[in-house]
Amino acid sequence: MDKWNTWDKIQYESELDSGFAQEVMSIPDGEKLLSCIQCGTCSGMCPLSSFMDYTPRQIVAMILAGFRGEVLSSYTTWLCASCYACTVECPQGIKITDLMYATKRLAIRDGMHPKRFPAQVLATEFYKGVERTGRSNEGSLLVRLFLKTNPLRLLGRAGFGLALLRRGRLSPKVESIKRPGGLQAMLRSIDRGEAARRHTPQATREAVQ
Amino acid sequence: MNYPYYPGCSLKSTGKPYDESMRAVFTALGHSLEEIDDWNCCGATAYMSISEEKAFALSARNFALAEKHNGKGDVNLVVPCAACYLGLNKAQRYLREHDDLRQTVSKALAEAGLTYRGNVKVRHPLEVLINDVGMDAIKARVTRPLKGLKVASYYGCQLVRPYADFDDQHDPTSMDRIVTALGGTPVDWPLKTRCCGGSLTGTVPDVGYRLSYVLLREAQRRGCDVIITACPLCQFNLECYQPTMSRANHTTVHMPVVYFTQLMGVAFGLKERALGLQRLFVPFEFTPAAPESKGAVHASA
Predict the structure, then answer these.
(1) Closest-CA residue in chain B for A29?
(2) Between chains, do A142 and B202 touch, taking CB under 8 Å as contact?
């Protein structure tokens, strides 16, 4: 009866990561997270909570308590479709959708996301595609998604892809801005800023400000 | 009026009929849309999952280009894709409210020789049609009133949540009002703003399809003839997977799903090809009910 064996779910305070909430809250208006009253409106509004391993309310509580590993390796954040229902309804004005984005980014940074999970692969491939051409190319994005997750699905979808091509709803032409170089220089500038902040200890950073 | 226009990536591929019908409808109403030069991805949804600051920088580059396009003064940037509309609006708000973010983004823009002065207003065509063009002008342009057509307006998530201020977040009515102006019958249904599953139909189909299926079933149950949307991803999800959903649920899902601009074009008497209707998988055709014969009138009198 594995269901009753919950020993591995017991967490001791010393095993929790007390800095985790701070890290998640480093986004604009992130500190509002502290005002959560655990009312569960977010989970009630979420059209996907019944498919998640932890509901949004649970995720918020776990972030605050420092359950770093559980939060960053959960499927919850990758099932979030960014419909913003929770953000609109939260009585405390917590931007839960933004928190979901923040946990996605931390999960990728620390390599803790579920492996080969298509929602994560889609985000990564989307990002890379925009870096290359400045625009998203839906056709090649889907091909890369299936190649990296389930190549068999690509075969299954070939007919559908052709039907879209025939209707002019997929284009073999690669959409691109004129000089992606300028855009890439912009993105590198943000990378440098992020790196500088990571290497400046918190105390110095506050002193500088 | 000539509006600067940001189509976004989807309107160049799967959402092509949205782009075509949008331009056709604006032209029919005596306005025009002019694509801003060299625009890039707005940095929405999937991109935001990797880097928030970069997503805002991508949006800001588009704002800078829109200002350049317009020369001086305020820019009314028309953005039809719901995801772009949200992404650009979000960037606007965050850049306005957070100084450090604005500095980071300005520095990045400077690398590409661009500046953003903060004069762009992101506007959805639905709002432009209602507030600038006006219901009277829309009504006056109708040549084939959609008499007897039952239409479910599906707004989806990102059009009204969380930043749009032109309509109610819980019970939006802008598309329903347009349907009435076109002579059609708006159908009241509770799923107007419930999520269609977004990109989950591609990534976790077992979950994504279910979310879309719920919407289609409800529209079907209420006797709708057609669903209208204002988002390329909603339209794609609701229209293109109907055979798969029918098989999975041992039932028949058959419901035309068109862009609200395509429906407007039909009521304006525009040609099928000008509206991209031939690109649909589930065909949509409106045949006005035959005018009642004199005999029928006598019979009912």
Answers:
(1) B98
(2) yes
Q: What is this model's ipTM?
A: 0.90
Flag if A28 and B204 touch (Cβ within 8 Å): no
Q: Which run of H or of E encompasses B259?
A: strand B257-259
Residue matched to tokens 């959609």: B146
User: Where in the sequence of chain A do the CATH 1.10.1060.10 domains occur?
Assistant: 16-110
Distance, in Å, from the CA atom of A126 to the CA atom of B10, rounded to the nearest integer, reads: 13
CB B213 within 8 A of CB B245: yes
Q: Do A51 and B54 touch (CB under 8 A)?
A: no
Say if residue B162 is preceded by a cis peptide, omega within 30 of 0.
yes
Question: pTM for the complete prediction?
Answer: 0.92
Quote the minimal CA–CA distance from A12 to chain B in Å.
31
DSSP B27-58: HHTT-EEEEPTT------HHHHTT-HHHHHHH
Q: Number of Cβ pairs closer than 8 Å across A and B?
A: 170
Chain B environment of A81 (Cβ under 8 Å): 157, 195, 197-200, 211
CA distance A69 to chain B (A): 18
Q: Cβ contact (<8 Å) for A47 and B57?
A: no
Q: One digit per residue, pLDDT tens: chain A, 209 residues?
A: 466 777 777 778 888 999 999 999 999 999 999 999 999 999 999 999 999 999 999 999 999 999 999 999 999 999 999 999 999 999 999 999 999 999 999 999 999 999 989 999 999 999 999 999 999 999 899 999 999 998 888 888 889 999 999 999 998 889 999 989 999 999 999 999 988 887 765 544 454 44
**What is the rounded distance in angstroms from the CA atom of residue B111 to the CA atom of residue B108?**
5
Which CATH code of 1.10.1060.10, 1.10.10.10, 3.30.420.40, 3.40.50.410 fits the domain covering A16-110?
A: 1.10.1060.10
